[in-house]
Structure formats: C-alpha cells, structure tokens
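User: Can you fold this complex?
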Amino acid sequence: MGAVFDQVWEIVAVCAIVAIVLVAGVVGLVRGRSSRQKELTPPPPPPKPSSPTAPPTDLDSDADGGGVDTLPAPTPTRPAEPEVDDDILIEELPTLERPASARGRLARLRARLARSNSAIGNALLVLLSRGGLDEEAWEEVEDTLIRADLGVDATNELVERLRTKVKVDGSGATSEAEVKAWLKADLLDLVDPEMDRRIASSRIDGRPAVILVVGVNGTGKTTTVGKLARVLVSEDRDVILGAADTFRAAAADQLETWGARVGVPTIRSEKEGADPAAVAFDAVKAAGEIEADVVIIDTAGRLHNKVGLMDELGKVKRVIEKQSPIDEVLLVLDATTGQNGLRQAEVFSEAVKVTGIVLTKLDGTAKGGIVVAVQRQLGVPVKLVGLGEGPDDLAPFDAEAFVDAIVG
Ligand code: GDP
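Assistant: Here's the predicted assembly.
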C-alpha cells in the first residue's frame, strides 16, 4: 500500500514539473513576440526640419530694403504610406475627412440665409402688395432696403423701378405673386448674375494657381482659407496652404489643423513674428515643387495702421510675384459689420488688386443687401459666402439662389 502511495506521489510530482515547464515556455514565447512587435513598430515621424533654408538671393535686394527671414525647410510632401507587415500591429492613421461637394452648397444652406434675411423680402412684399402706395409707404420701402445694407444708390434705383412697375400696372392692388416676381427680377439685376464668379484654382501655364486671402483679423479669414481648401479638395484639386499670418500666434496652428483634416500640407514658420513675405514665398515655391494645382495664402490683417498694413501686404505681393503671378486676391469681409466693412474694403483695395469678395457670417445678419453694396463699391464680384461655423458652411455665391432665399 505504502509503495503504491509513493508511486502515485511520484507521478503527481512529475506531472507538476512538466506543467510548470510548459507554462514557462508559453509565457516566454508570448513575451518574445510582443517585444518583437514593439521593436518593429514604426518610429514616430521625425520632427519638422528646423534647419533653415537659405533665402533666395534675389529677395535680399527687395525694393523696400527688407530682406526675407530664413524659414525652416518647407515640408510639402505628403506622408508616405506605411509599409504593412503581417507581424506588426500598426496604429490606425486618422482617416481623412471627405468634404461636402461644392455643388448645390448654397441651396443646402439656403434655410440659414433665409432665416436671417427673409425679413427684407417679407417686409417689402407686405408693403408693395398693399395697393395704393402713398409717399409714406414708399419711404418705408426705402428704409427697409437701407436697413438691409443695400446702400443708398442701389436703394434709390430699386425703388424707382418698383414705382414705375406699380404705376404701369395701375390696378391699385397688385397681387403678392406679381410683386414677388418684380422684386426677384429687380434684386437679381442689382446682384448681377453676369459677373464672373469663378475662382482661379487650377494650374495655369504649367504652374499652380496662386490665391492670396486678405482681410481684417476676426472677419473669418483663416477659417475661410480652411473651408476653401475643403471646397477645392472636394473637386479633386491638389491644394497647399501658406500660413503667412505670422502675427497671430495661433493662426498657423489653426490653418495646419484645417489642412490636416483633408490631407492638405501647410507651409509655415515655427518662428512667431516671422516675415510673412518669406512664408508666402516658400509656400508658392513648395507648390511649384510638388506640382500642386493651387496654393492659398493666409495673411495677417491688422488695421491699426493703414500704412503698415499696406506696406506689409505690398511686400507679400511683390515677393510672391518674384516667382509667380498672383491669380486671385480674395478679400474677406464680415457681413455683420455693414458700412465699417465697406471702409475696410477700400483700404485693402488700395494695397492689392482685389479680384473677389468673400462675405462671411451671412448666417448671422439680416443685412444681405451688403452683397450689392460691396460689389458696387469695389466693382468686383462676391465669389463665396460664409453661412456658419461648420467646416462645410462656405458656398460659392450664386445670384439666383441668393435672391430666392431672400425673397422666398
Ligand atoms: P481671422 O482672424 O480673420 O482669421 O478669423 P477666424 O478665421 O479666426 O474667424 C473668427 C471667428 O469667426 C471664428 O469664431 C469663426 O468660427 C467665425 N466665422 C468665420 N466664418 C463664419 C461664418 O460664415 N459664420 C459664422 N457664424 N461664423 C464664422
């Protein structure tokens, strides 16, 4: 019995030893594998190069005597696709956003435009279809249009046309539908559907199109550059951004974030207060090197001193033009600032030749008439409108859709 007992114990002991050896082996294997995975995980991307590029020599002889600061070498290339190895666990790259297509954006955002601006249309419809309009009623029509920031000239013109139509009609009680049709036609004439509102955004003569975006800080300039990049990405354009608003510390970060969301590289300086002209120069150069379709350059807009602003913008323009013509200068105006915005527009158009207006924050104002006023004053078309803070709340301006949204 004792011998049998001893034998059983021997067997149990042997089994236990075998089990321990097996467990140790398995643990060892697992550890080895996971540490191999760590070794093979790709290293984080290298930091942006900080070694400065030598400034182009001809820039040092810039007419105003101001040379160009050196900048870190631009990093225009897109991140390389990681090599996939079956054995490696690779962290998922953030997926790029797919921006909404530009087509039909204004129609999609129509409700927002109508919400803030339908007061103009409604007030006019009520007044005009009342019949038997006396002088007081016509003054009310005028006041409504002036309050909507249409401007005195355009208001007088519109009222004159409407008065003639009411007189010709002669019925004394015009139907609302008829008045609506007149209003739409006359407003559309004022907004001018014939203006060329296309934006230069494809390669021209074998080089990237260059868009310069100017405007007072706070009008929504940087946001507009980011949103415009999305519009162009949705149209399959190869876009590159230049963060030449070097005055506001956060502007370059803000722009880079906008670009990164849709896979668009941003050329910037790591140095706060760097020469904006140098950043603009590097952005245009990088765009040429990677054969981008279009480069969009954000600029600073400090209006504290008109002469300073004009000098700065003038220099950015001259330095860019040393390597490429500027195809588009978009002036960003905040629609809620009314007449003040128009004064800003004058200052900017003295410094650069504005080719198009971007009216931001039209979602937050009942002063849609500013579209007409600013076009008349500057003689250039409104090309884009901002209708909210969302990434895709920027729409190509369409005269018919705009008038439809206002008059209803
Ligand atoms: P910048 O100083 O001119 O570059 O202005 P930002 O791009 O930083 O924008 C200033 C503020 O305006 C931000 O809070 C934007 O979200 C806001 N903004 C820009 N465009 C629009 C717009 O179309 N509608 C509304 N409601 N807000 C806007």
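The two ends are 105 Å apart (CA to CA). Residues 215, 217-223, 360-361, 363-364, 386-389, 393 surround guanosine-5'-diphosphate (CB under 6 Å).
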